[in-house]
Design a protein that fits this description.
Strand order of the largest sheet: 5-11-10-7-8
Shape: rod-shaped
Largest sheet: 5 strands, mixed
Distance between the termini: 126 Å
Number of helices: 6
Order of helices and strands: EEEEEEEEEEEEEEEEEEEHHHHHH
Structural class: alpha+beta
Number of strands: 19
Helix content: 10-25%
Number of domains: 4
Radius of gyration: 56 Å
Amino acid sequence: MTLVTPDAVSLTVRPEEGKVIEKVENQEDGTISYKVVEASDSTLQPPTVSLTADKTSAYVGDSITLTASAVSAEGATITYSWYKDGQKISGATASTLTVTSSGIYTVVVTAQKTVNNNVYSAEDDASISCTFVVRDDDDDNDNNNSGSSSSGSTSVRRYNIEADAGRGGDISPDGRVRVRRGENQTFRITADDGWEIADVEVDGESVGAVERYTFENVRTDHTISVTFRQIVTEPEEPQTPALPFTDVSEGDWYHDAVAYCWENGIMDGTSGTAFAPNMILTRAMMAQVLYNLAGGTPAAAAGFPDVSPTAWYADAVNWAAANGYVTGYDNGLFGPEDDLTREQMAAILYRYAGSPAPAGTLDGFADAASASAYAVDALRWAVGEGLLTGKDGGRLDPTGTASRAELAQILARFAG
């Protein structure tokens, strides 16, 4: 029915008994429209309900998802309530429900609509049965209830953990390890001698080079694998033995040279604890040092009357003479205890080196003219090779004596 009223006019419509006003519209031009229907025509029809499950049976430890859908009159509000075996599930008001135990699940769907302050509602329900069973190979039931539903079974599911270790060590336990649902499982990793743990991967992800790993609250299958690597040991730097000589200190200019000669068996001390660096060299000492340097072998006697066959230097002098490194005096003597001069030392080393063409010069030394004729080339060679250097005042001092420390320095340069 449609009415047209002037402004500021109140209109009251009272429907007859058994009827209700279903709809009222007030237009801007003052037109009021309303619809009166039988009260029975306004009763809300129950919604159409359907209930589905992603599966109706599952293994213990898995889950089933239930989904309810409803179709109702236009404008109606839909609400859901879930029940298990007739008991309402607290807080379950969504259109979906995830279940983990056997039972009959029911969803009650309510449609509600308000018309002119009158609330109309209708509901319907749908039910579905869900069953959870134990896997045959997961049966751990002491009561032998294999295959029964979870409501009557104490069976617990087991999961597999595959443990593998590569070459170079072990993992314990290894192979396929069965673990009861919810329990922990620890693996211990040991490397063989000469090997170390390189990495441990759990389910394909690295957890580092750990010696043990624990799976906690196991609820699925897992893998654990270990790789090892060989330990590469860098060769240790050889330890240089400390000099036994109390008269050679680390700060001395000849320390390293003495250490070189002693470590290589070229020069020994005058005793177990003394090197005597400032002792003047004798001709016998020079022959012995050269013999040590070359690793010489005994030779026939050179015929020097003053070299006894039993003297400590006899083998060295005979060897040096046989190879042309040393010569005697014009009187046929060798003079083993005579002091060794710097030019004699240069001449002996020069012959030992094969008498190469000298490259040095003596022009820069103030006393070069004092050198013996036989020693000039040897001195030039020694100066050119850096074996022999001058003394204070620009002197070469060819006829001066040589100390054991000086010889050690020259030999270290020569051998190096």
